[in-house]
């Protein structure tokens, strides 16, 4: 059975476009493909902590198999999130663009899962590259919504896009290199510009639901 891990990063609930699009996508995927288990992880409601001094000391501890109990405890949530990621075949992220980047809840998730020794290895003597990604064989889908327009490749605001472009980079760093992005623009403008963009995203997601 295929397992999809779905992250919801908008602080908005019913009014969130990214949340609604991904929920429809997940339902369509189950309807189209049958045997799919969906694991939902909320990251948008201020529920994930930032990494702490203890977290950092624990993650970079010289003897990871022999950490003192309080340091080990500081990694409990990180371990849970990393295990959840490894257990999934597919990763789906629903996120707004916030101030040209991602919302802080999703950044907290990234900081919890991009972890030395778990999702990547650091090999300082390797002449090719000191970094060895460990999260292999997975596909990711990013559904992102934006108030303005022109953030896509070649667009006038592409240089300001530190949201899905950043996510693609950081997922690639841990080994997830097969990443599809579906974006909706013009939320702040509304009207036809937004409706057209939203409908195009719905069509792209309906197509993807058949075999993602
Ligand atoms: C705090 C905040 C920052 C935002 N920053 C940007 C931005 O930098 N660029 C942009 O195009 N839209 C920006 N927006 C608009 C959102 O990206 C847009 O409304 C999006 O559709 C919200 O996603 P949601 O409907 O899933 O909550 C921002 C909105 C908020 C609330």
Automatic annotation (TrEMBL):
InterPro entries reported for this sequence: Flavodoxin_fold, Flavoprotein-like_sf, FMN-dep_NADH:Q_OxRdtase_AzoR1, NADH:quinone_OxRdtase_FMN_depd
Catalytic reaction list: N,N-dimethyl-1,4-phenylenediamine + anthranilate + 2 NAD(+) = 2-(4-dimethylaminophenyl)diazenylbenzoate + 2 NADH + 2 H(+); 2 a quinone + NADH + H(+) = 2 a 1,4-benzosemiquinone + NAD(+)
Necessary cofactors: FMN
Cofactor binding annotation: Binds 1 FMN per subunit.
Oxidoreductase recorded as keyword: yes
Enzyme class name: oxidoreductase
Gene3D superfamilies: 3.40.50.360
Coiled-coil residue windows: none
Record key words, sorted: Flavoprotein, FMN, NAD, Oxidoreductase
E.C. numbers: 1.6.5.-, 1.7.1.17
GO molecular function: electron transfer activity; FMN binding; oxidoreductase activity, acting on NAD(P)H as acceptor; oxidoreductase activity, acting on NAD(P)H, quinone or similar compound as acceptor
Pfam families named in the record: Flavodoxin_2 (PF02525)
Tagged with keyword Chaperone: no
All copies of domain Flavodoxin-like fold, residue ranges: 2-206
Positions annotated to bind FMN: 10, 16-18, 97-100
PANTHER family recorded: FMN-DEPENDENT NADH-AZOREDUCTASE 1, FMN-DEPENDENT NADH:QUINONE OXIDOREDUCTASE
Its biological purpose: Quinone reductase that provides resistance to thiol-specific stress caused by electrophilic quinones.
Sequence similarity: Belongs to the azoreductase type 1 family.
Subunit structure: Homodimer.
Name of the protein described by the UniProt record: FMN dependent NADH:quinone oxidoreductase
Organism this protein belongs to: Pseudomonas indica
